[in-house]
Amino acid sequence: MPYGYQAVPLDRLGRPLADWWQRFVAIVIDGLIIGVVYWILAAAVVSSSLRTGLTHFAFRLWLVQVIVGLGAIAYFALLEGSERGQSVGMMALGIAVRDATTGGTISRSRAGARMVILYPWLVLIMIPLIGGVLGFLGDIWTLICGLSPLWNPARQGYHDIAQNTSVIKTR
Description:
Layout lengths: L19 H33 L4 H24 L7 H6 L1 E5 L8 H11 L2 H4 L6 H17 L10 H6 L1 E5 L2
Antiparallel strand pairs: 1-2
Helix pairs in contact: 1-2, 2-4
């Protein structure tokens, strides 16, 4: 292994690309935010079901999953599709999503699609009964997709490649 200065990978406009660990920590932060919302809503469903009986409990819990799934897609679409191109986790880590060709921001629809590609369970969970089985397969895909920047020379995940995006350092 060579010693001395190591060049940092750059995007096509010369901006440094985010390290994998930065992307990982950012998504953990975002996951904690979304997870807190999920657990608050789930606790409300459990609490109300204990008071009123377990009638429709499974449906209510599924409805919470649908609401949180749609909310998570909206969260990433609105934040990563904004002028900043950053979710709360990305802001904390000083990284942002950019169009890989132009270097500009991406649209909300591309940001939302990027997250659905990374987290297919956000959509699969909405399918009653089989959503859980498909969600497990989606979890395997999320793991592979989340690790994919590690072996891509441009540090792009499969979700980045599909939406022609890069994640750059902003500081």
